[in-house]
Design brief:
It is a single chain. By secondary structure, the protein is mainly beta. It has one domain: SH3 type barrels (Roll). Helices cover 9% and strands 43% of the residues. Strands 1, 2, 3, 4, 5, 6 and 7 form a seven-stranded antiparallel sheet that branches. The termini are far apart. The C terminus is likely disordered.
């Protein structure tokens, strides 16, 4: 299983077992024509609290929801020009995604959450400073 986190043109973060779709050209060369997202889930960051002090860490949750929940297909083709970037997800997200895929019933329309008290739990060293944004 190759679990990746993809950012789509739509702005959605999707975690999935991602594979390339490859076809042979008439010259016999391999050409990548798209991706297959196996059991894709939308990843959302949700904060339940307001920041009261500038240096205070904001607790947040990661929610996983099925992507295209009304589709019978579990392997969904995606054209490459809809994918902005593909990255390695943090370990906690991979573990949760893999655990959900062991029980395929869980992906049938239910939300699943990971809770983090501090952004450092995800390997983020610091929060962006809104005053220094371009």
């Amino acid at each position: 299983m190759t679990v990746k986190l993809a950012l789509l043109k739509s702005g959605e973060d999707v975690v999935a077992d991602l594979q390339e779709m490859v076809v042979k050209t008439p010259e016999g060369q391999d050409k990548m024509v798209g991706y297959i997202f196996k059991n894709p889930c939308i990843v959302k960051l949700v904060s339940g609290q307001q920041q009261t002090e500038p240096d205070q860490a904001i607790p947040f949750k990661i929610q996983l929801q099925p992507w295209m929940p009304l589709s019978k297909d579990k392997n969904i083709p995606v054209v490459p020009d809809w994918v902005v970037t593909i990255t390695e997800p943090v370990d906690e997200l991979v573990n949760t995604y893999e655990r959900l895929n062991l029980d395929s019933q869980t992906l049938e329309g239910e939300e699943n959450e990971l809770e983090f008290e501090d952004p450092e739990d995800l390997g983020v060293d610091e929060q962006p400073d809104a005053d220094n944004a371009d």
